[in-house]
Write the structure tokens for this entry.
Amino acid sequence: KGLKFPMYSFPVYHGGDYICTAYAFGSGLKRKADAPTDVQRAAAERASKESQTAHFLQRTNRSVLFLSDVSKIGPDSLNFIKSLEPVDLLVVDFLLGPKESHFSHWCFDDVVAFTQVIQPRAVLGVGMWCTIEHETMNRLLAEKLAELKTINPSLRTDYLGLAYDGLTLK
């Protein structure tokens, strides 16, 4: 006996042509009524299997997009992501700070750009390089989010920050 909720996996790039798996899951996850892509069809088949997770996803009717290792998202996967509504939490690769880049990981500017596209309610960066000072980066991210909300008041993202060891989601 386990908790049931949709769970989809889909490919993203992790440097060059190397493919890594990303995930979308949660009891609140829904897809817009668009024609399914090949990625969506494959994900729907996998979603029919029973899954288990922490109770918070079942109780609070939340949806999570998990992109832990990503440098680029292909068109089919991006269309799949855009078909999800809503995304409550984006957990995303966040290696380096503003104006820095890496061949196999997203950094500050990539995360900010992607946040504007999918507009999750909250964003947690993971996998930071040791040069990232947590409090300073969270301050920069809060300032960036405030700037984005000034430019686009309908932006539905309420939190943009870094995750940390021992973080509890409520």
Summary: Residues 46-59 have pLDDT under 50 and may be disordered.
